[in-house]
Amino acid sequence: MASATEQEAVPEHAPERAGPPVWPGAPTPLGARCRVGPDGVAGTNFALWAGGAEAVELCLFAPDGTERRLPLTELTHEIWHGFVPGVEAGQRYGYRVHGRWDPWTGARWNPAKLLLDPYARAVDGDFELPPEVYGHVRDWPQQHVADTVRDERDSAPYVPKGVVVQDDDDWADDRRPKTPWQDSVIYELHVKGFTRLHPGIPERLRGTYAGLAHPAAIEHLVQLGVTAVELLPVHQFAHEDHLLRRGLRNHWGYNSIGYFAPHAGYSSSGTTGQQVGEFKRMVRALHAAGIEVILDVVYNHTAEAGELGPTLSLKGIDNRGYYRLQSDARRYADYTGCGNTLHVVQPQVLRLITDSLRYWVTEMGVDGFRFDLAAALARSMHDVDMLSPFLAVIAQDPVLRRVKLIAEPWDVGNGGYQVGAFPPLWTEWNDRYRDAVRDFWRGALHDVRDLGYRLSGSSDLYAWGGRRPYASVNFVTAHDGFTLRDLVTYERKHNEANGEGNRDGTNDNRSWNCGTEGETDDPGITALRLRQQRNLLTTLLLSTGVPMLVAGDEMGRTQGGNNNAYCQDNETGWVDWTLPDDPGRAQLLALTRRLLALRNHHPVLRRRAFFSGRPQGADGLRDLAWFTADGAEMTEPDWYAPTATLGLYLSGRDIPGRDERGEQIADDSFLAVLHAGPHPLDFRLPGPPWAETYELVVDTSREDQSGPPGTVHRGGGTLTVGARSVVLLRVETTG
């Protein structure tokens, strides 16, 4: 086999190296920062950590694409830096990093590849992934060694550039909502997918940050009653090669390449820094409406994939310093299923992540983060470690420990499932809640032990270390999987449009199609599906913990049975705003609004402490009680027996804690009856001392939940509960 040098291509041209002077500058902060240099000269300071590199060139690009290369000769603690007079905001730039090409030891330096600054705060251009952007010869005939053959073709014409951004915002006029966790309701949405078809948003703003900031978008959120939006990834991301080859694009954005830059594709105002200001204005508009902004962040891997992936940034800066490598250093340790894993125990990687988090809080105004595959970040060398450097740094950071932190508490590696294991400060996506609720309503629970824990805050998972019920983010659906409507319409995934032979996406959907696969004109099945959606939403919004809704579920959005629509940047992945034109969908939306208003009004539904289940007074009433269909309190054997009916009594007189004025918190008491059986059921209502009478508040067997106050029922009497329905009753007593 010929040597790597003999296999290299010859560069087509050499760029200009003459240009402005480079003064020493400073090694901090990392990235490109406009500032005033010596003698009051304005310019930009550039600083790049590149451990092990032999040389670094700063590349400045004129509007016509002309490149000027400026060597950075100052090196401080592995940070290459320099101050360039006259460089202003809007300047496009990148780096070329020189070093050894030795993939067998993990060294993959290749100065022919223009690299994106990991600290770039704006990115201009698209990642299209032609062969020139790969550090190795992608089409080398012997593919098993292709990653060892260095490609000398210049990638600069084919890759996006970083953009220098002006620091001009102190957020003095912004008012963060600071919603307490127990009062929070999260609404997961996609910036483009939520706004792309909204008729009330001007067409030029649809699909953008400005579109989400538009009054028409915010009005829906406010009327719905959510307190926070959780945005699917808005860090600059790239599209995977296998999608581009099939004419598709990454829609969800879980393929980050720029942890400081708002994704330029969602900007209506420009991509040479304007996207930063547009994002900030969006945050301000949401804050003004009382809505917090939480970002779904992907710090576990990057868009550079494995050894056969492109060289876009970190791989070419210091592959061994940024990524976890196997004992065979040509290969990447992959705990994410995406080809690589960031090596978070390395100080410079930990700094990159925490600097990024602080930047989005302090300079971009966001209120919290949901960490994709958070278990991968908590790995020390190999195993998940809840005393890992990442979690320790977050716990003591004066900025980050005060924002909302949500873990997706698993990854794809051994021992990666960590639900209930994250330390205080953290909340978690609780997939055990999702599975138990889905199984109950499709009739697949063998008993109701697990369901009881999930409805009451999952104390079995979170009642340790000072954690509270709001450590559990309860959800029935998320971006990943079926929508709520599809959950009751399909039993099998239908992902053919993704081009992967329907092999992608989970097969464990825990769904029920109500008797027919797919959409149908059968009025009986249609009515049942709407009722099941009402049941699932009602269960979610009455449960203790923090509820999370997915954009469009409140209106019956469908993806046609696609449970992995990550590459469907089209009507499949966008919210259809014509759905409320259908009376059944309109009533579903109305019910969601009503339930959220009820939750907001009643602290018994937003508890800050776990239930004790013990008698709280002389009458023997407990703060939480469970009843069988015959009106008797459940005994130990009842929890182990199969049942389709569960009565849940929530006492409003025994709520721990005090309000802001130091007064004891008191509320109404409620009885919820969940009945998943296929036939109506006579449920005996508990009498005194539990209640004298009950007032009907919600009955999901009815399509229309509006109207006058509900019917009053006598304690000790019988209430007929419709087939597959939830009934919520307000307790009335004379005591």
Structure description:
The chain has 735 residues and is an alpha/beta fold. The protein is built from 16 helices and 29 strands. A hairpin with a 5-residue loop joins β1 (31-36) and β2. α10 (431-441) packs across α11 (449-455) and α14 (523-542) runs parallel beside α15 (583-601). It is elongated, with a radius of gyration of 28 Å. 51% of the residues are buried.
Q: Note the beta-strand portion.
A: 15-25%
Strand count, sense and barrel status of the largest sheet are: 8 strands, parallel, barrel
What overall geometry do the principal axes of the alpha carbons give?
elongated
> What percentage of residues falls in helices of 4 or more residues?
10-25%
Strand arrangement, major sheet: 12-13-16-17-18-19-20-21
Cα Rg? 28 Å
Number of strands: 29
- Quaternary structure classification: single chain
Class derived from helix and strand content: alpha/beta
Number of helices: 16
Distance between the termini: 91 Å
Average pLDDT number: 94
Extract low-pLDDT stretches. Answer: 1-13
Task: List the defining traits of the structure above.
alpha/beta, 19% strand, elongated, eight-stranded parallel barrel, 20% helix, 735 residues, 16 helices, disordered N terminus, single chain, six-stranded antiparallel beta sheet
List the helices and strands and how they pair.
Blueprint: E1 31-36, E2 42-49, E3 55-61, E4 67-72, E5 74-76, E6 79-85, E7 92-98, E8 101-102, E9 107-108, E10 123-124, E11 161-163, E12 186-189, H1 191-195, H2 209-213, H3 215-224, E13 228-231, E14 235-237, H4 241-245, E15 256-262, H5 274-288, E16 292-297, H6 314-322, H7 347-362, E17 368-371, H8 374-377, H9 389-396, E18 404-407, E19 426-430, H10 431-441, H11 449-455, H12 459-462, E20 472-474, H13 484-487, H14 523-542, E21 546-550, H15 583-601, E22 624-627, H16 636-640, E23 645-650, E24 670-675, E25 681-684, E26 693-699, E27 712-714, E28 718-721, E29 725-732
Parallel strand pairs: 12-13, 12-21, 13-16, 16-17, 17-18, 18-19, 19-20, 20-21
Antiparallel strand pairs: 1-2, 2-6, 3-4, 3-7, 5-6, 7-11, 8-9, 10-11, 14-15, 22-23, 23-24, 24-29, 25-28, 26-27, 26-29
Helix pairs in contact: 10-11, 14-15
